[in-house]
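ok trying this again, last paste got cut off
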Amino acid sequence: MRARYAELLDKALFGLVQRGFGMFVFDVVVAISDQAVIEHRDELPEVRKADQVVDRVRDLRRKQAALAHPMSKDPRAKEWGMTLKPEELIRTSA
């Protein structure tokens, strides 16, 4: 993503400064087989059964889009590093 940041992110400050991914928060989602058994002492919130991944990614995209809204009242909007505009979210989603 860093190699293509100019294509993925809009410029800031009236188009004078190219934004990058330095303050970007990455969400990790790991898919395992539906039949697999997870044996771990601690919780692994990023690990999901394959059939749960689609819903998790949709949830993350919805939250990110809501935080990017300038009128967002969610307290995380100021703490989540960099937020994306909806059109940037589409360009950066795999």
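PB: full thing came through this time. Strands lie at 11-12, 17-18, 30-32, 47-49.
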